[in-house]
Amino acid sequence: MGDGDVDESSKLKRIVFVTVGTTSFDSLVRAVDTLEVKEELSKRGYTHLLIQMGRGSYFPTKSNSEDGSLAVDYFTFSSSIADSLRSASLVISHAGSGSIFETLQLGKPLIVVVNEDLMDNHQSELAEELADRKHLFCARPQTLHQVISSMDLNSLIPYPSGDATPVAKLINRFLGFPDD
Q1: How would you write the chain as a 3-class SS string?
Q2: What angle do CA 96, 115, 82 make, to 5 degrees?
Q3: pTM of this prediction?
Q4: What are the residues facing 112 on neighbouring strands?
Q5: Cα gap 42→38, rounded to integer Å
Q6: Residues 140, 117: contact at Cβ < 8 Å?
Q7: For residues 33 and 121, what is the distance between their CA atoms, to the nearest angstrom?
Q8: Fewest CB atoms within 10 A around its CB: which of 24, 70, 156, 174?
Q9: Computed from CA positions of residues 93, 99, 101, 105, in that sequence, does the dihedral angle turn out positive or negative?
Q10: 45 exposed, middle or buried (CB, 10 Å; 0-12, 13-18, 19+)?
Q11: d(CA 51, CA 111)
Q12: Separation of CA 81 from chain center
């Protein structure tokens, strides 16, 4: 291919990446594996569903999309999900702060699904606060379909990256180093 050529296959590929982190979140995997969720994603122009299922015991149904439906694949773990996040057009994630902020820093649209089976779920507070600030959408496994069907990606506000400079200057001053 020349410099001006465009790879048509990657241009048309719109991936939804689902991550559950290092634990088990079968109710999320089951929710994205439902026909209604897959049809809604397909209706919205997504072509591939890639699920990182962690330690879960529920295995989603693989599909190669030959019939025009969503292509579905899954894996348990990877040393890094950064490439999957970068290639995604939409991310559906558990409510772990690492996954949330890594996705937001990449500027990817994000639906956070809260695991209601966790005790003392502080993660839901983070997800709901960021949803209130319009940085992401928040769902429960049983409401995921409704959130996908009603989401307006243009309503999301990019999450501002933090600037550590003021903190670094404060520490330097405290330690007696001169300001640069």
Answers
A1: CCCCCCCHHHHHCCEEEEECCCCCCHHHHHHHCCHHHHHHHHHCCCCEEEEECCCCCCCCCCECCCCCCCEEEEECCCCCCHHHHHHEEEEEECCCHHHHHHHHHCCCCEEEECCCCCCCCHHHHHHHHHHHCCCCEEECHHHHHHHHHHCCHHHCCCCCCCCCHHHHHHHHHHHCCCCC
A2: 35
A3: 0.84
A4: 93, 138
A5: 6
A6: no
A7: 24
A8: 174
A9: negative
A10: exposed
A11: 14
A12: 10
76-129: pLDDT as tens digits: 999 889 999 999 999 999 999 889 999 999 999 999 999 988 766 677 888 999
Signed CA dihedral, 165, 97, 91, 87: sign only: positive
Distance, in Å, from the CA atom of 154 to the CA atom of 57, rounded to the nearest integer, reads 35
- Interatomic CA distance for residues 58 and 127, integer angstroms: 24
Structure tokens at 167: 């903190």
Residue 72's DSSP bridge partners are: 49, 63
